[in-house]
């Protein structure tokens, strides 16, 4: 062992990392299958298969031998890529080593149980059912935060899992600015009493036709079906099985055309990131996506900044009419208005581009207080409702539309803020593209999506985890995540919408 | 280690065996995915994932520790199930230990290469291209046979992989009788100059309609879609991912209705075996299918003995007409005649119930001579053509329709005879069912497939590998595989067919 040179140790680590990635790929495939084609009763044994392989992956990466290899490799004269890989490997190794296996298993088991109870509680609209499980999850998360360690406050340790090196304080600073600006813009919309004509989206939309139209859009934008698929599911997601095999899913409501279209574009954004990673580095961090906040920036970019733009529908509205002749008598501008309707609502996943972030800010602030010990689970529901009323101006009528609406808290905290970080980063990248490639909507109108994709691929996708998330944002845009870009974008968009007759 | 009791050692083995089965299940899923939904370019990395997990499974089962556990467990006072599991575990352990890893890898690599060359050679109708690879494969197989050891002749060692404890000599005895009887029956058909009216099957059959009809049949027969699926593929297969997740595939030709129907029933038979295994023993031999000759007996039973019977179509012909009105003017008896046309042909997979076995006997005799060193690869093509002419009365016009038609020899020998063993066992079970349940076709006419399935489940499926294949046949039918049942069945069937006006 001590005879290994740092290059040999590094090679060993590459080999192991790749091996475990190949094995994980079968878990990803199985996860995709569970949510698309698995027969109903197949779940009974599937969880066991996942647990066994999951444990194997954990065991392999927490062997002392891995730590020794990292120590040797670190000591060498490394290039940028090697340094980055070792940074992430060491981080993963140390974190996994710190968490005792019993705690890990307790977390997984409690989550599984809590998930089922959450579903029942939501159905029965009864938070009290879920509360003891939420308490247990939060105890586990607090314990993990203590074990992992943190910069300023326990909540930092949880954020770091999804957005490495980001702190709750930095997020709070960003979110506070975004919050006041969002409320200002929301008041602007409210006082305008604008009719967004959402009724033009009502009607019956054949499922097969929707599927065809979504595939049509994907092909036009440049989604490579030799390297990917589109399937149907209940809760849409994107997943990379392996390089050259990236799959997206969507759902089809026959009374709602926008769910499948924008769901597809959202997952396509995630898929573009995965498809654009550097295949040569597959199985090592430099060949993997870097954080949820960056990942979400891509889904939001393609869904909202591109997909909900007027330019996009100037290009595709005639095609949409061919698939759905009911739009024949609807003016393009009115369709554009309808798909961008701003309307505060109880439910996060149904929110528009503007109010979505208020939902996230609410969750972020509550999570932070809970994990830092400033708010007890017993007071959480009231805190939710009070805060919601303050932000939105009305109060949830029940738990289903309030604290029970999201699945996340049955297993995790720290995840939510990455959704809004995604929106913020998307806006920041959007303005950079406009600066470097000229008016992006000119490209969209001409269907030149490839130019946009190639820019993102070169600047973001190909970098993988070479840089930490905020380093990447800095490298691409010249500064860290800054709320002014999203505010500017929303302000422009809203003024445009309000000016439509 | 020496402190383990035999019960503890046995439990350890159960745990390991189950663990590896769960891991294998993800390989099965990936195999299914490759042949159904995987995007075209996905293959590039998938093979690597399979190789890595395959090597892991091999390594785990060949650890000395496994051998030690087996030794301890063997020494105890075991029940029937434990004895059986240990028998198969020891067999697998010893065989895997004997084959050096280099040889294993050489076999896998040569097969992969040979498969691609075979495809090209078949396309170009040029056996010479394939010959050097076939030589190499046969060298490897001969070497493996020597290492594994055998009872009478090297070929035994290869047969044993698919049909444990069966010998070439026993198969030869069975096949010789079957051969002369088949030729006798074939001459009877030839001299009758019967018109099987195969033209009634000609026409255009919408693919979606075929799919619906196949699903309709599966539901009627009792295929549980909560525990299984039907999908489309190029080369149909059945696969169990896990208990409660058994998947079948078929192909649809729009100018041929019988391919999808009988392909589906064939794979359904394989699926029934897998679905009927004892779930409590999943992951151990007693919970697994015992041999290909038994497996194939189930696919042939449901495809031919049930699916191609007059009784079956008495039940379903009106439904078929609803799906495909073109049969409105075709008499049931003529449809029955057409789906049972006896017509010698060059291609095994297109062969009818009678001549199919001649194709197998040809391959069995050639394989036996090649592996036992009595026939060289240089003489194999001529030997094929000579033997074919002797059996069928006409000579292959080219290699595509001759020695290059099957994929099997790009990796294996010893597999082919199990197809005919399947036919023989199916017939033997068929007569036993008639004896124990009364006229099986009465049940079929009433749609009482469940009664038949339950009989097979109790007698065969639930036994898994508790007994060796010939022990199982003996237990179920009172004797080892005996060709007289298949001959009797074919004779009856043919007389019936010839008597139709």
Report on this model:
Two copies of one chain form a homodimer. By secondary structure, chain A is mainly α. Among the domains of chain A are: 1-97; 199-339 and 439-467, Neurolysin, domain 3. Helices cover 64% and strands 3% of the residues of chain A. The first copy, chain A, has 20 helices and three strands. The first copy, chain A, has helices spanning 6-34, 43-61, 64-74, 80-98, 101-124, 127-148, 154-162, 168-192, 207-221, 257-275, 292-306, 310-323, 332-339, 356-371, 380-392, 417-437, 440-445, 449-459, 469-477, 483-499, and strands spanning 228-232, 238-242, 245-250. In chain A, strands 1-3-2 form a three-stranded mixed beta sheet. In chain A, a hairpin with a 2-residue loop joins strand 2 (238-242) and strand 3. The longest helix of chain A has 29 residues, at 6-34. Chain A is globular and about 75 Å long. The mean pLDDT of chain A is 97. Chain A binds chain B through residues 19, 22-23, 25-27, 29-30, 33, 37-42, 44-46, 48-49, 52-53, 56, 225-229, 231, 241-245, 247, 282, and chain B through 19, 22-23, 25-27, 29-30, 33, 37-42, 44-46, 48-49, 52-53, 56, 225-229, 231, 241-245, 247, 282.
